[in-house]
Amino acid sequence: MDRIWTNARIATLTGDGLGLIECGAIGARAGRIAWVGDAGAAPGAAEVIDCAGRLITPGLIDCHTHLVHGGSRANEWAMRLEGATYEEIARAGGGIVSTMRATRAMSEGELVESALPRLDALLAEGVTTIEIKSGYGLTVDDELKMLRAARALGEARDVRVATTLLAAHAVPPEYRDDPDAYVDLVCDAIIPAAAGLADAVDGFCEGIGFTPQQIARVFDAARAAGLPVKLHAEQLSHLAGASLAASYGALSADHLEHIDAADIAAMAGAGTVAVLLPGAYYFMRETHKPPVQALREAGVPIALASDCNPGTSPTTSLLLMLNMGATLFGLSVTECLRAVTVNAARALGLQADIGTLEVGKAADLAIWNTSEPAELVYRIGFNPLHARIKDGLCN
Asked: Which of 84, 217, 308, 323 is most buried by a 10 A CB count?
């Protein structure tokens, strides 16, 4: 055994709850969990770390972000505060198009440098795995540039990065009069070119995004490239995108404020994770909440994520999302913690490797300056992280 963390309250997240071990220990060998159990039965190790009663959870997982992007939309937000509508801002060259222009203008290295402070803020709260989407380039070269930048962040910092191709995020201005031609580009050129850089394919199924028919074409191209899919669905209206995603065995459907019973049944049958994004709900002043109770009753796994992006969720705090998930959406403490560990791992298709503290999984841990799991959900603007362990090493 390389090292043992002992005298800890361990939330393994196994089973249906927190999987608590009251006075436990966890051992790592070669970056993997090699032993978990009661501290009194722990084996010897080259290094023994006394956690002094602190709580250990799996390293947190942020399973939906747009971390790589150029520019800022703070001025647009200020305009909205003064009464401007999203449509007025978009007609003036704002919205996703403004981020697209800023992203296209930046080099891969500049995108990495601009994203590092955002990434560092998330890592400082115990995040050990993060999903990063493209979607602000909207050309072959610029989408690949974003994916390379996302991969480079995983080399610049000790963090596991899952990359998602979101070329079907918006119709770029040059295709405004022929959106289907842009879908052709996504399916015929961008997805095949990104197959070695992307871990999954995403889309935005919405009245201001893409139709279900267009998304089905994108998903068919993803399937041909051997890539799993996920979908931004039912955020602003109901187009049955979540049901479409489930029909393709999607890893997740995200946002979901307007899903209906048929969508929920389809997701439950497919094992598709519901990724809720309270930061966007809050920032956009939405009032139509996702139907959490119906998701619970159907047994749909619920995840939470930051949705870090410049337009609708400019947050870099996953801990804040735990509090918002509880206060805005009515999730319990247990549900919130499962939402950023075991269920978030499922939303990325990584549940065999991360998300719970079990023998054989990656030794990704978060050690907290508390013994009480509720503290992680209860506090606002306070970071109780004591240590972040990635692959068995403190960093």
From this structure: 308
DSSP β-ladder status, 365-368 and 385-390 = antiparallel
**Positive or negative, the Cα torsion across 307, 313, 319, 323?**
negative
Q: What are the Cα distances from residue 71, in Å, to 149, 169, 252, 341?
A: 15, 17, 28, 30
Do 26 and 4 meet the contact criterion of CB atoms below 8 Å apart? yes
Q: What angle do CA 378, 283, 110 make, to 5 degrees?
A: 100
Q: How far is CA 89 from the centre of its chain?
A: 27
Looking at residue 83, the DSSP 8-state letter turns out to be T
- Strand ranges in the chain using DSSP code E only, listed in sequence order: 3-11, 20-29, 32-38, 47-50, 55-58, 60-62, 127-133, 160-168, 200-205, 230-233, 252-255, 273-276, 302-304, 365-368, 385-390, 393-394
**Which backbone phi and psi does 235 adopt, to 5 degrees?**
-80, -45
* Spatial CB neighbours of 332, under 8 Å, sequence gap ≥ 6: 326
How do beta strands 200-205 and 302-304 pair? Answer: unpaired
Determine the Cα–Cα distance for residues 128 and 314; give it in Å rounded to an integer: 20
**pTM check: above 0.85:** yes
Q: Given the DSSP bridges, would you call strands 385-390 and 393-394 parallel, antiparallel or unpaired? A: antiparallel
Residue where the block lists tokens 């994108």:
218
pLDDT of residue 87: 67
Average pLDDT over residues 341-363: 98
